[in-house]
From TrEMBL:
Function: Cadherins are calcium-dependent cell adhesion proteins.
Key word Metal-binding present: yes
Name of the protein in question: CADH8 protein
Domain named Cadherin: residues: 3-83, 84-192, 193-307, 308-412, 412-534
SMART domains reported in the protein's UniProt record: CA
GO CC term (a single one): catenin complex
InterPro entries: Cadherin, Cadherin-like_dom, Cadherin-like_sf, Cadherin_CS, Cadherin_Y-type_LIR, Catenin-bd_sf
Length: 715
């Protein structure tokens, strides 16, 4: 720095202030030269603003105004490129064409991108050729070789370099790695590990049971490796089926229908495996499927007997004779050895043992009589067992239908009782009856009705067959009377017209009743015409009411008479107004030890149980008293009762009997202790009964009585 005022003398002094003054930048105060005292880094601070001023060295007075100036740091190439996001991972489908985009990388340079070429980057591949390439300026990585196969090599390691100075000599560089993985596409068909498979299976294998597995390998992975299996040719396409195991991608061969060694001993199948997901781009490489041959050998097994039919239906008439043959079942051993068969009936299905079977030829016979009306169907199970191996057993259901025969006579559907009005008209329908038959003819029921031969010329009633197979009973005349005849019995013969015809006789009861003018039945009782002529129901009710009234009057009269004879003054013996009971007997006192055992009056704590009441029944027999003569009217009832009471009191054989009760202990915890005079050490004269008044009104009254007794004695 230099001022125009400087004449060349040493009186001028230069002063520097601002960013970095005195630390980074220092000025020579005599010459004005500015020096940088430290290494500068443009990437840290690109420019500094400083202020300079010239002052008098002696007075420090400014010689001119301060001047501001800027120092800019010029960039040099001192920072290499850096890949901030590295290392990189990328994927690309296998078999991709040349130039397929893989990924893009980015490097940064801290140098000034405006000044020079310090930040001008150029990209290149150091490792990874000739498989991949990179655009020098955009850093886009692409495939460089066609048809890269994942099955041959799946992963590639690529090294990318970024160099500044436009890639020229002397430029700085940085590197990063890119791991490129080839993703799978369906470019490989499934392939069976072997062209021929052999399996063997027992003929009694269960349906749906797997008998073998085949495997078509696919070099692809995931969804591209999934295959479906199918049987496309062979003589067992309807006997076997093949399914895919979702976990292992195996083809599982299963039995679809029963096998029979005696019928066919081997099968040949052609199995195909095909990819489920196919990429159309690779169809030109061939079909994505493969085939293999499967040979299955059926081995012989000891099989149970086989019936000639899965079910049997037999029909028999219900009147079939015992031991008659109803039908026959047949079975055979399908094995080559052909064991003899024995037949039997599962008795759990024939609990009543109505049928038998011949163990040798399977003929079913009748053991007990049948009744279609009881059971129309019988379902039994026949068991066939090999004689050489009893574990080989087969069962077959046999349904036996019992056919109907005409063995039941028709009868009335219900017990009918007809009512005939006394004022009925000739030809009036009295009752319509119907019949039932337990049999079941093919063409339905048709009943024939008739009267007994001796009742054909019945003067009172006649019958008429209706179209609905019912019968109407009609009156021949009018003027029926209950007094003349109350009930009529009409026997009717019912026939079914079957083969052989069956018939029965039912009796219809016809009761003559009194009816209103419109034909409504009012009374059919026999008592109705026994009453005197002209006595109506209202009159009967009035008579009964009078009788009841007379009975009430008699009862009231007797009751008033009894109350009148009772005495008005109550005797002293019958006065129960006081709670004092008088006893005329006394004990013998403490000196009387002969009348009882004093040990029983002691504390009963040691005695278990409760002493029951001991009733003593007298041994003597009381002679019955002579029958009393009838009491004439007017005798006092009170005197009669007293006589009866006296007789009862003097009868020792009449209960209640004399009894013994023991009162020897009042229980533990009693503040009063025992009330018994036994074992008392003091006399009555030594006791004070005033404390009894504290126990309540009853004990207070007892204390007063004892106190009065003591005072009387002293007096």
């Amino acid at each position: 720095l230099h001022t125009d005022l400087d004449p060349g003398s040493s009186k001028i002094k230069y002063i520097l202030s601002g960013d970095g003054a005195g630390t980074i930048f220092v000025i020579n105060d005599k010459t004005g030269d500015i020096h940088a005292m430290k290494r500068l880094d443009r990437e840290e601070k690109a420019e500094y603003t400083l202020t300079a001023q010239a002052v008098d060295r002696d007075t420090n007075q400014p010689l001119e105004p301060p001047s501001e100036f800027i120092i800019k740091v010029q960039d040099i190439n001192d920072n290499p490129p850096e890949f901030v996001d590295g290392p990189y991972h990328a994927t690309v489908p296998e078999m991709s064409v040349v130039g397929t985009f893989v990924t893009k990388v980015t490097a940064t340079d801290a140098d000034d991108p405006v000044y020079g070429n310090s930040a001008k980057l150029v990209y290149s591949i150091l490792e990874g050729q000739p498989y991949f390439s990179i655009e020098p300026h955009t850093a886009i990585i692409k495939t460089a070789l066609p048809n890269m196969d994942r099955e041959a090599k799946e992963e590639y390691f690529v090294v990318i370099q970024a160099k500044d100075m436009g890639g020229h000599m002397g430029g700085l560089s940085g590197t990063t790695t890119v791991t490129i993985t080839l993703t799978d596409v369906n470019d490989n068909p499934p392939k069976f590990a072997q062209s021929l498979y052999h399996f063997s299976v027992m003929e009694d294998v269960a349906l749906g049971e797997p008998i073998g597995r085949v495997k078509a390998n696919d070099l692809d992975i995931g969804e591209n490796a999934k295959s479906s299996y199918d049987i496309i040719e062979g003589d067992g396409m309807d006997i076997f089926e093949i399914t895919t195991d979702a976990q292992t991608q195996d083809g599982i061969i299963r039995v679809r229908k029963p096998l029979d060694f005696e019928t066919k001993k081997s099968y040949t199948l052609k199995v195909e495996a095909a990819n489920i997901h196919i990429d159309p781009r690779f169809l030109s490489g061939g079909p994505f499927k493969d085939t293999a041959t499967v040979k299955i050998v059926v081995e012989d097994a000891d099989e149970p007997p086989v019936f000639s039919s899965p079910t049997y239906l037999l029909e028999v008439h219900e009147n079939a004779a015992l031991n008659s043959v109803l039908g026959q079942v047949t079975a055979h051993d399908p094995d080559v050895s052909s064991s003899p068969i024995r037949f039997s009936i599962d008795r759990h299905t024939d609990l009543e043992r109505q049928f038998n079977i011949n163990a040798e030829d399977g003929k079913i016979t009748l053991a007990t009589p049948l009744d279609r009306e009881t059971s129309t169907w019988h379902n039994i199970t026949i068991v066939a067992t090999e004689t050489r191996n009893h574990s080989q057993v087969s069962r077959v259901p046999v349904a036996i239908k019992v056919l109907d025969v005409n063995d039941n006579a028709p009868e009335f559907a219900s017990e009918h009782e007809a009512f005939l009005c006394e004022n009925g008209k000739p030809g009036q329908v009295i009752q319509i009856v119907s019949a039932v038959d337990k049999d079941d003819p093919k063409n339905g029921h048709y009943f024939l009705y008739s009267l007994l031969p001796e009742m054909v010329n019945n003067p009172n009633f006649t019958i008429k067959k209706n179209e609905d197979n019912t019968l109407s009973i009609l009156a021949k005349h009018s003027g029926f009377s209950r007094q003349k005849q109350e009930v009529y019995l009409l026997p009717i013969v019912i026939s079914d017209g079957g083969t052989p015809p069956m018939s029965s006789t039912g009796t219809l009861t016809i009761r003559v009743c009194g009816c209103s003018s419109d034909g409504t039945v009012q009374s059919c009782n026999v008592e109705a015409y026994v009453l005197p002529i002209g006595l109506s129901m209202g009159a009967l009710i009035a008579i009964l009411a009078c009788i009841i009234l007379l009975l009430v009057i008699v009862v009231l009269f007797v009751t008033l008479r009894r109350h009148k004879n009772e005495p008005l003054i109550i005797k002293d013996d019958e006065d129960v107004r006081e709670n004092i009971i008088r006893y005329d007997d006394e004990g013998g006192g403490e000196e009387d030890t002969e009348a009882f055992d004093i040990a029983t009056l002691q504390n009963p704590d040691g005695i278990n149980g409760f002493l029951p009441r001991k009733d003593i029944k007298p041994d003597l027999q009381f002679m019955p008293r002579q029958g009393l003569a009838p009491v004439p009217n007017g005798v006092d009832v009170d005197e009669f009762i007293n006589v009866r009471l006296h007789e009862a009191d003097n009868d020792p054989t009449a209960p209640p009997y004399d009894s013994i009760q023991i009162y020897g202990y009042e229980g533990k915890g009693s503040a009063a202790g025992s009330l018994s005079s036994l074992e008392s050490s003091t006399s009555d004269s030594d006791q004070n009964f005033d404390y009894l008044s504290e126990w309540g009104p009853r004990f207070k009254r007892l204390g007063e009585l004892y106190s009065v007794g003591e005072s009387d004695k002293e007096t």
